[in-house]
Amino acid sequence: VTSEQLRDLSQELQRFLLQYEFGLREIETKLSILRDEFLSLHDYNPIEHISSRVKAPESLVDKLRRKGLTFELATVREQITDIAGVRVTCAFSTDVYRLFDLLTQQDDVTVRSVKDYIAHPKPNGYQSLHAVIEIPVFLSSERVSVPVEVQFRTIAMDFWASLEHKIYYKYSAAVPDGLLDELKSAAATATELDARMERLHRQLHGDRS
Ligand code: 0O2
């Protein structure tokens, strides 16, 4: 590969990833509008935290290798749906589902897939509601449809997932059995805490929010 070809490739990749960056901005705007309107109508904030990222090229390449895919942009676009990722953390699981509904029902949003790991937690205890949605982005000469993976979860689920993620990487995926059991039990405690906090919240606010 000549250095000129490398430069062209790198430019092509940058342009490709930029579309995902634009997709993220669209979703972030939608979420912040929902949050601000909710605040103004109900004096209540349904979102604790929003974070987003475009997958780093190295971790994209890792994922392609893991899945045995070639680095062709058309294949990448079709097969890797979490290049753009947004994480929405809410205090309560009712807010998780409420925001999911409000976002996915918008008429410029197309839902590609949904995985409800809250209703059906993963065997390790992981809980979150995942949706891959497509959003139109208007560029100077075309309209592109950009997939964004949105993960909705409660603070307790997020706390659990970030620790589990660290443990998983520390042990390079070979986590000792004892720790796996502890994690599973901690996930059950998180679920219980979510239910208790939700009950308290209801007592405080009734069904107002
Ligand atoms: P990262 O570093 O967060 O980007 P896929 O591999 O995405 O094609 P999969 O695994 O069926 O297909 O997708 P799924 O189940 O929707 O999970 C995708 C993302 O959810 C992961 O992205 C994690 O962010 C999160 N996730 C899923 N399972 C777990 C889990 O057991 N523990 C934790 N902590 N997070 C989880 P990546 O690409 O794996 O990682």
Automatic annotation (TrEMBL):
SMART domains from the UniProt entry: RelA_SpoT (SM00954)
Organism: Demequina sediminis
Record protein name field: GTP pyrophosphokinase YwaC
UniProt xrefs under InterPro entries: GTP_Pyrophosphokinase, NT_sf, RelA_SpoT
Domain RelA/SpoT: 52-175
One Pfam family here: RelA_SpoT
